[in-house]
Amino acid sequence: MSCESQGVKESGQASHQTVPVQVQGQQYRIRTEADPDTVKRAATLLDETMGRVRSRAGTVDSRDIAVLAGLNIANSLVSLREQSGAGSLRAVRGRVEALVSLVEGVVGEPPASIS
To answer: Could you tell me which residue, 7 or 40, shows the higher pLDDT?
Structure first.
């Protein structure tokens, strides 16, 4: 998933679609092969988490807020990994990857890969 204009891969490969989302008042067009509703739910989760972090931390620095929100979401992922099996982990991983792409768009830097 990336924050780019709409495009389609060459024949025989999955096509990308562009999903418009809004995070912290910013509009993003996310280019993805993922389900658009999943991307929109991920954006909503990220937006809500960033809003909570902003109100609790009292900081206005977008990078700090994005990192703290990412840590909150990663903590949830770690907890889910400990509680669930591999099948549901794939679904959670997809949601987290969508969130990572959104955070990447906010801070402008690609994060380290998710293991």
So the answer is: 40
pLDDT tens by residue, 84-97: 665 666 777 777 88
Rounded Cα–Cα distance for residues 95 and 110 (Å)? 17
Is 19 in contact with 29 (CB distance < 8 Å)?
yes
Q: Is the pTM of this model over 0.70?
A: no
**One-letter-per-residue 3-state SS of the chain:** CECCCCCCCCCCCCCCEEEEEEECCEEEEEEECCCHHHHHHHHHHHHHHHHHHHHHHCCCCHHHHHHHHHHHHHHHHHHHHHHCCHHHHHHHHHHHHHHHHHHHHHHCCCCCCCC
Under 8 Å between Cβ of 31 and 85: no
Average pLDDT of the residues of the chain: 79
**What Rg value do the Cα atoms of the chain yield, rounded?**
15
**Measuring CA to CA, which residue among 5, 29, 23 is closest to residue 107?**
23
